[in-house]
């Protein structure tokens, strides 16, 4: 069985430093009509607890791989995203 190549993206921080992230998954939410992306940092130590980052995103153009990321700001949106993340993680762990 071939190993699946993980998709990675680079996100600059507020200081302009670029950080490499691995895409865990993307998902759409019908209630908000938005798309979301869950990421983990590529550079992390093995014994370190992994912090998952989530953003709302929009594709800039259909032909381009470029994304616009937006912070999740409302508590309701965070709760909905966390529920979806937990459900997707549980499915992945069972499979």
Helix fraction, binned, reads 10-25%
Cα radius of gyration in angstroms: 14 Å
Cα(first) to Cα(last) distance is 16 Å
Strand order within the widest sheet? 1-2-3-4-5
Beta percentage is 35-45%
* Contiguous runs where pLDDT drops below 50 for at least 5 residues: none
Rounded average pLDDT = 83
What is the overall shape?
A: globular
Strand-pairing-aware structural class:
alpha+beta
Q: SSE order in H/E notation? A: EEEEEH
Largest sheet entry: 5 strands, antiparallel
Task: Please tally the β strands and state the result.
Answer: 5
Q: What is the count of DSSP helices, taking H or I runs of 4+ residues?
A: 1
What report would you give on this structure?
This protein is 21% helix and 38% strand. The chain has one helix and five strands, in the order βββββα. The protein has one helix at 75-94, and strands spanning 8-12, 18-29, 34-41, 53-59, 67-70. The chain has a five-stranded antiparallel sheet with strand order 1-2-3-4-5. A hairpin with a 5-residue loop joins strand 1 and strand 2 (18-29). The longest helix has 20 residues, at 75-94.
